[in-house]
Design a protein that fits this description.
single chain, 18 strands, eight-stranded mixed beta sheet, binds zinc ion
């Protein structure tokens, strides 16, 4: 996990776009397609730094995730584009949905809504950055967030580019990735990252608990193989961006290896509150607990 800390230190030194209305976020234009802007919320070396991604088409834009809900994300988006913006959450966890209330409607997979509604909303119990100091008045209330549901295969035409929702449960029941067809970036959320994919306990319950497993993840990667084969790069929600597409195959192999022999693991203790088992195949890493295999 030293790799993750090194990445956090490196990106802190990089020049990016700063935002007049929000001191917490730094923007980086994608080097292949400048109409994609990656928005970084820096939580120091805590491991909790998170990316949001803005994809601009010819007629509208898509914002993937809303971070922790600290600062004025609306001001960030308005500085970048005048296009109407649709917001989509890759999953319900508080580091991806905290700023939802700043937008009229946010889309989320139908299976994650019950978990999101059960999550603690009070400032002293919701998921917040561990390392970053922030002004209490910049914390966005969760109370008025509205969600609409989507399901696997939904598409959004942004004008000149189409985004497709790919349901890949495991990290959460309604966890989704989003594939951009123009340059083949898979916005992989917390499902496939340069850091471990977490398939562990520690969150409130909800519907479809059978999908909170390595088995569900393996099955979804297999059933979506054709569309996933069209991805060229991965831009996850944490850690390094523009990962090669080989991460997808490695993740398939990693989940299969866990199912074949769940006891062949090493101990993972990077997050002391969430100890687990780690399994690595090439660049793919999954952290899991015995009750979340099948
Ligand atoms: Zn996350």
């Amino acid at each position: 996990m030293q790799q993750q800390d090194a990445f956090a230190a490196a990106i802190r030194k990089e020049d990016g776009i700063s935002f007049v209305g929000d001191p917490y976020v730094k923007g980086f234009r994608n080097r292949i397609d400048s109409n994609i802007i990656h928005l970084y919320f820096d939580d120091g070396d805590s491991g909790g730094s998170v990316w949001m991604h803005l994809i601009c088409g010819e007629s509208s834009a898509l914002l993937i995730d809303t971070g922790y809900g600290i600062g004025n994300l609306q001001a960030v988006i308005r500085q970048l584009t005048d296009l109407p913006v649709t917001v989509f959450n890759t999953h319900w966890h508080g580091d991806h949905t905290g700023g939802n209330a700043q937008f009229d409607i946010v889309y989320m997979h139908e299976y994650d809504v019950s978990y999101w509604k059960n999550a603690p909303m009070a400032p002293d119990s919701r998921l917040l950055p561990q390392a970053l100091p922030y002004r209490k008045e910049d914390l966005v209330s969760l109370a008025e967030s509205k969600v609409c549901t989507v399901s696997d295969g939904c598409t959004l035409d942004l004008g000149g580019r189409t985004e497709t929702v790919i349901h890949t449960p495991g990290h959460s029941a309604g966890n989704c990735m989003v594939l951009d067809d123009k340059i083949g970036i898979l916005f992989s959320g917390d499902a496939i990252l340069s850091t471990p994919t977490l398939v562990i306990d520690g969150f409130p319950g909800g519907e479809h608990p059978d999908l909170l497993t390595v088995k569900a993840m393996e099955h979804s990667l297999q059933t979506h193989q054709d569309i996933l084969n069209t991805a060229q790069w991965l831009c996850p929600s944490h850690g390094r961006l523009m990962l090669p597409a080989g991460y997808i195959t490695a993740m398939q192999q990693c989940t299969q290896a866990i199912l074949q022999d769940p006891d062949a693991f090493e101990i993972y203790d990077y997050i002391p509150a969430m100890p687990g088992h780690i399994r690595c195949v090439q660049d793919a890493m999954v952290v899991y607990t015995a009750n979340r295999v099948r």
